[in-house]
């Protein structure tokens, strides 16, 4: 088992990201900056050789802990929250965050649209490494990161194309879209094609009402275009490759 422990400050915010297989990557930040979830996903991508950062693990496979002094009493306060899929790892979380036998981990509310087990399972074929246990416990350090400027995720696009079966229309849509992306995007992209007939649960969770629908999952905010993907200018606007 790979263990990477450093001194933990008394006051900090800690974020942990697990894989379905049980590997753990986490961070401890005394300055309580943002974007750590993005860094953890990028760290998993690099560690496991994934084709893109596994943003779909957030928030379902995460846990957070915050330690601060109450402004009036100056008593140490601790707030810890864990999502249901990783509640079994509370002892490990206590170990990496050095919180002893802390028992007050709160179970985070389960938003179906953000962590549907059926939807998460559809990523297994694309990210098999995440469902394997590599006995990894890795602490991600700030070195090399600029929290105000997320690294790997912002240099590429994560796209989903929802279609109705694989037919001639779908093939033409894919061909024209692929050509457009190759010629017009200045950054790498990942395009996942989802057949709503085979995966109706994904269509429902993504609020797909018609096909084809192209969804830009990353960079955020999420954007989508429904129907006419032959309108090159409109597609590029939705992707953010040109100004709206």
From TrEMBL:
InterPro entries: KaiB-like (IPR039022), KaiB_domain (IPR011649), Thioredoxin-like_sf (IPR036249)
Domain KaiB as annotated: residue spans: 160-241
Pfam families in the record: KaiB
Protein name: Circadian clock KaiB family protein
Organism: Funiculus sociatus GB2-A5
Phylogenetic classification of the source organism: Bacteria, Bacillati, Cyanobacteriota, Cyanophyceae, Coleofasciculales
């Amino acid at each position: 088992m790979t263990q990477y422990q450093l001194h933990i400050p008394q006051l900090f915010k800690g974020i942990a990201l697990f894989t379905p297989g049980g590997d753990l990557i986490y961070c401890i930040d005394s300055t309580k900056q943002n974007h750590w979830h993005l860094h953890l996903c990028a760290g998993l991508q690099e560690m496991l050789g994934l084709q893109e950062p596994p943003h779909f693990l957030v928030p379902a496979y995460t846990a957070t802990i915050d330690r601060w002094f109450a402004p009036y009493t100056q008593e140490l306060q601790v707030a810890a929250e864990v999502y249901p899929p990783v509640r079994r790892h509370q002892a490990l979380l206590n170990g990496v965050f050095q919180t002893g036998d802390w028992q007050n981990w709160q179970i985070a509310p389960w938003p179906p649209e953000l962590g549907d087990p059926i939807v998460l399972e559809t990523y297994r074929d694309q990210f098999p490494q995440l469902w394997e246990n590599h006995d990894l416990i890795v602490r991600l350090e700030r070195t090399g990161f600029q929290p105000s400027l997320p690294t790997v995720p912002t240099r590429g696009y994560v796209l989903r194309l929802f279609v109705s079966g694989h037919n001639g229309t779908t093939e033409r849509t894919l061909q024209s879209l692929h050509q457009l992306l190759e010629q017009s995007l200045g950054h790498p992209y990942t395009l996942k094609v989802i057949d709503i007939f085979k995966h109706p649960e994904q269509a429902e969770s993504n609020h797909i009402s018609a096909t084809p629908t192209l969804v830009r999952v990353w960079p955020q905010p999420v954007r989508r275009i429904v129907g006419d993907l032959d309108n090159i200018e409109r597609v590029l606007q939705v992707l953010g490759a040109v100004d709206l």
